[in-house]
Known about the structure:
Blueprint: H1 3-7, H2 26-32, E1 47-48, H3 58-69, E2 74-78, E3 87-93, E4 96-102, E5 112-116, E6 131-133, E7 136-138, E8 145-147, E9 152-154, E10 173-178, E11 183-187, H4 197-200, H5 204-208, E12 216-226, H6 230-237, H7 243-246, H8 248-253, E13 254-263, E14 267-274, H9 284-295, H10 318-323, E15 344-348, E16 352-356, E17 360-370, E18 373-383, H11 388-418, E19 425-426, H12 432-456, H13 475-484
Antiparallel strand pairs: 1-19, 2-11, 3-4, 3-6, 4-5, 5-10, 7-8, 8-9, 10-11, 12-18, 13-14, 14-15, 15-16, 16-17, 17-18
Helix pairs in contact: 3-12, 6-11
Amino acid sequence: xxxxxxxxxxxxxxxxxxxxxxxxxxxxxxxxxxxxxxxxxxxxxxxxxxxxxxxxxxxxxxxxxxxxxxxxxxxxxxxxxxxxxxxxxxxxxxxxxxxxxxxxxxxxxxxxxxxxxxxxxxxxxxxxxxxxxxxxxxxxxxxxxxxxxxxxxxxxxxxxxxxxxxxxxxxxxxxxxxxxxxxxxxxxxxxxxxxxxxxxxxxxxxxxxxxxxxxxxxxxxxxxxxxxxxxxxxxxxxxxxxxxxxxxxxxxxxxxxxxxxxxxxxxxxxxxxxxxxxxxxxxxxxxxxxxxxxxxxxxxxxxxxxxxxxxxxxxxxxxxxxxxxxxxxxxxxxxxxxxxxxxxxxxxxxxxxxxxxxxxxxxxxxxxxxxxxxxxxxxxxxxxxxxxxxxxxxxxxxxxxxxxxxxxxxxxxxxxxxxxxxxxxxxxxxxxxxxxxxxxxxxxxxxxxxxxxxxxxxxxxxxxxxxxxxxxxxxxxxxxxxxxxxxxxxxxxxxxxx
Length: 498
């Protein structure tokens, strides 16, 4: 199914999206994918960004954690990385440490389980490695042990303690969902009123079926640590208005005039047409540089003669350089290594992206540490059977583009922190993806703040918090003392800055 066919479906716009957030209609999308449009729709009035204070204020960040990150379905990994019972991977999102493990035994044998990485005894992390394999997880503080289903199997010297029940001291579970394509999501909300995954991301699973995730295998991961707010990165991810200026490699790989962002249901689909082999994307200046390079026996070559899978030139080997003195070869007719697939790129609210190409797909997880510090984690999966050179070329291309975005974020955040800039005007079409996700952020924050004011006297309500044991009769009274002293995290929300 081509992007144009997908875009022609009805109900592209989620019900909760109001008319102030512009989206592309089906005719406009089809035109961007290669169809002919007779008339162009008029541009709607633009809107401004959220206030700059939302990119550096710690109170806003703490409210975002409660309203968004502790109440959303968050992408983590792919199920293919869990090959045998006991395989686990640890994660951390907005301060919450957790791990996912492949269980063994019982009714859930072989299923993936997610647990808070907190021992029920004294809160020490049960898992301390980033990954490993074990069907028995032992806390290195006092030796409490849990099986792969999170059940407490051993608590040293507690056998004779009156009133102690191992069944009441299992690891804290986290809601988990695995799509039929193998994408793994978690939701930290500990309540019973969590929006089901297929309702939260209505339509996502069907769109992901366009790509055969089973034909790919894990290749590598890497991460970057940035001094910027998580939204600084998402702002750039949700538009390609900046691509012709900031991403020369990406700009030569895709026809940027076809780039579209289509908001759906808490996710966005990105579309663009890939440059096919034989299509000339060089500017006049680039052509002159290539000709000059040839005259001086340079080892560089034009993109049209390159075998680069993404349509932009790769460095010649010494053998290729020597051969360049020979008569020019016949016009290259082999297919682009990227294939005919234009790509499946999806933004997943609030902080994730899944980007699929022919030779590989990768995920990006934008993990907020504080209001001005963020970790970017990338997992790359390559097509089974492709050669190492193609893998390396994809990784090199990806890292170059992501580093360009990283540098944009670093410098942008520095100016945001200064307080000179307050808000900016967004293009209604080129930046409609930014408008869409920022509206989701705004609405979630306002809704949660109103909930805290109406139900808890303005004190924080954290959906991820798990109620304490009813056996601890003093717990509620002692917690009340803490609340009365305003020592609970995030209680002093103050007024929202607009």
